Sequence to fold (491 residues):
Amino acid sequence: MNGIEKNCNALIIFNTIPSGLSCRNSKAAVSNSIKYFFIASNKTDVRQSAIKVSFLSEENSEVCGSFMAPKMRRINSTFNNQHSTDKRLFRVLDLGLGLFVLIFFIQFNLCAQSSTKKDTTIILISDFAVQAEVTDALNSLYNYEFAKAELFFQGFKEKYKWHPLPYFLMGLGEWWKIVPNPQVKKYDAHFLAYMDSTIWVAENLYKHYPEYKIEAAFFLAAAHGFKGELYADVERKDWLKAASEGKAALKYMEVCREKNNLSPELLFGDALYNYFREWVPENYKSLKPIFWLFRHGDKKLGLKQLKEVSYNAFYSRTEAMVWLMRILAGYENDTQGAFQLAEYLYQTYPNNPYFHRYYARMLYSMGNMPQLEIQCKQIMQRIDSGRFGYEAVSGRYAAFFLAQGYDITRNLGEAKKYYMRAIKFSEEVKAFDSGYYLYSLISLGEIYSREGDKKTAKKYFNLVKKHAGRKDEAYKDAKQRLKKLEKASKD
Fold:
């Protein structure tokens, strides 16, 4: 940004970052969804931790015998006032999805605990040979090099086609295609097909090979839980299917409670439980009675465990870092800690659009405008060039941050340009009540008001009143500005 001072803080204009999600009744909506799932399904998110539980050895390949061959062939053939707004973003993302995961992790943690004796009941996750084999593919997946990752996973499936893990890995790849913009549903079918394949293969182990019962039960619980998360997404809201998947997950998670030796990989689930078990009733008083049924958590312990997983785990490491980053930024007011994680994730996986935009967000919070300009312009360039995963949600972030920087330095031409782009990106994803949309409108109205174009200024302020809830700070701000314009025109 030409002329932007190095230490200029973008928060001069607004107190904090605007939300990317709804400003309207978001807390009530989240409360209802949490209550529904704690009562009806008692399940939660697994994400990548489902693939990190155990790994296999070639000696087990006889499990895939003639019984499975025909069905295997069929499976293979089918496929952010701004401050309050910002907090709503985290509550929708981390509660609408994240806290849906909480009770699932209660049982998931127990399910994933391994045997105290070495046998074939749990296949070791500490198999360094398998870790070495999978590392490049997982790195490619997180770096959005899906063709490379999928090529490996196909070969991995051929090698271990008797086991649910390869199908789960392939489903994980489809999941990360959904992450940047959950409104895009074209990957749902493949994702669900891979999770259904995971379930079918795991059921075969569960029913016909008692020595793999615990391992199979884990993957059954994980796959059902992952499907439940998708159905519970705010863009899908298929509550009945979500509850059904949660019920199925609980069935198999009860089986997993037979084993109780915790692995460092599996602290991930316990960490999330410990943190959110206390955070939810603290912030949603009406939900306190529901939590009487569950053991107490410990937020400090949860954070400690998340850090341990981030430092010491192999398969769970990246997912733990993502959750820790979001918690530090959204709930713990540890901007520096969140920034360090965001920077690491972006530098490690520079082609991941979710990590890229989160890094930009933390640069904005830190007031590092020169680096923010570089990253936001790169995001915009990737959107304009059609780079996979870079779309309107990321554009809404980048355009708003650029506009704020230019607004600060009074480069009003560029500021208006990028506020308009932020508005168009928001309209593209129908995020009319998002903070990025509403405060872009307010900022444009303010610029036009300063320039003496009262008519255009009123147009933007009225759009804010149209789309914001009456209790939103944006609505109050726009209403106040309109009154000032009316008073000035009378004078």
Observations:
- The CA atoms of residues 19 and 275 lie 23 Å apart.
